[in-house]
Specification:
This protein is mostly helical and 174 residues long. The chain has five helices and no strands.
Length: 174
């Protein structure tokens, strides 16, 4: 073999290695992007949840003025939802919002007249729908995070994640 062939062969191996590394890097980046999209879906439903809770505050102020403790609980829940910034563990605070919804759904057990109130029924249905969508979004998010985390089982992905400083994502049980 002449030196020209050896140089072309070495250059080809280097280019092939770079392409292989780019393939693995791209796969991790695509999975990270999917996680962020799923998280944005969750954030959208959290905003809907926040707005629904504000509607509950208005409803309770208009119909059940004596439930001031519950109104303050609703307002605290809205503050919690407003302060969610990222996926790094803060989503666990959503349990407070779920409890708030459950409490709202139980009001008709305390006040039987609410079972006939169309506004209450509409708000209750809206809250249940948002909760179901949020649960589905979290399941979707968790599936993508598990796929992303399972890439670590292969050493090449784990190495690329460490070198490129890809973040670690956690699943959430809501």
């Amino acid at each position: 073999m002449d030196s020209y062939t050896i140089i072309v062969l070495i250059f080809g191996i280097i280019i092939l290695s770079i392409l292989i590394l780019l393939y693995f890097y791209n796969k991790i980046t695509i999975q990270k992007t999917r996680i962020l999209k799923k998280y944005n879906n969750v954030k959208g439903y959290i905003l809907e949840e926040r707005n629904a809770i504000l509607e509950m505050v208005t409803f309770i102020k208009n119909n059940l003025e004596h439930e001031q403790d519950y109104i303050s609980t609703l307002k605290k829940t809205v503050e919690v939802l407003d302060n969610l910034k990222n996926t790094d563990g803060e989503l666990k605070q959503l349990k407070q919002a779920q409890n708030t919804y459950r409490d709202f759904s139980k009001l008709d057990n305390v006040y039987s007249s609410l079972k006939k109130n169309k506004e209450y029924i509409t708000l209750k249905e809206k809250a249940n729908t948002i909760e179901e969508r949020l649960k589905y979004s979290f399941d979707d998010y968790n599936k993508e995070v598990k796929k992303y985390n399972n890439l670590d089982k292969e050493k090449i992905y784990d190495l690329i994640k460490k070198i490129a400083r890809f973040p670690k994502y956690d699943t959430y049980k809501i």
